[in-house]
Every structure is written in C-alpha cells, then in structure tokens.
Write a structure and sequence with these properties.
Layout (H helix, E strand, L loop, with lengths): L1 H15 L3 H14 L4 H13 L3 H14 L4 H7 L1
Length: 79
C-alpha cells in the first residue's frame, strides 16, 4: 500500500497545483495499486473532468460509486 499512498499523494499535489493531466496520470497509477479505493477513482474523475475528458470522468466516478455506493458525493458528481 505504500506505493498507492505515494501515487495518491502525488496526484493530490498535482491537482492542487492545477496540473490536471499529471494528476489524472498519478490517480490512474494509484488506482492500479489499489483498485478498491473509491476515493482514488473520485479523484481520477475530478482530474479527468478538469482536462475536458468528460467520458473518462464519468467512468471513474461510476467506478467510485460501484465500490462505495453509499457515498452520496460520488453520486452527486455524476449528476
């Protein structure tokens, strides 16, 4: 899980710096390390949305909902 946390932290840093393409790439890496962490997919969705990849954002948010269906924020992100 150490690799996942490192990738997730890197993604958050990129996102905070408004480097959304790099954030999306780091979230994708984090998701490969921990494919059951819904928040990672939500972050990926947010980063993809910021890059204009609406389809990719929806896919990521849908995965977050699939993993954690009781989290209303993930549903809200889908509209």
């Amino acid at each position: 899980m150490e690799q996942w946390a490192k990738a997730r932290d890197e993604a958050r840093s990129y996102y905070g710096a408004k480097k959304y393409k790099q954030a999306a790439q780091a979230y994708e890496k984090a998701a490969r390390y921990n494919p059951t962490h819904a928040g990672t997919f939500a972050g990926l969705g947010a980063a993809r949305l910021q890059t204009g990849d609406a389809r990719g954002a929806v896919q990521a948010y849908q995965k977050a909902v699939q993993i954690s269906p009781s989290t209303s924020g993930f549903h809200a992100a889908l509209g």
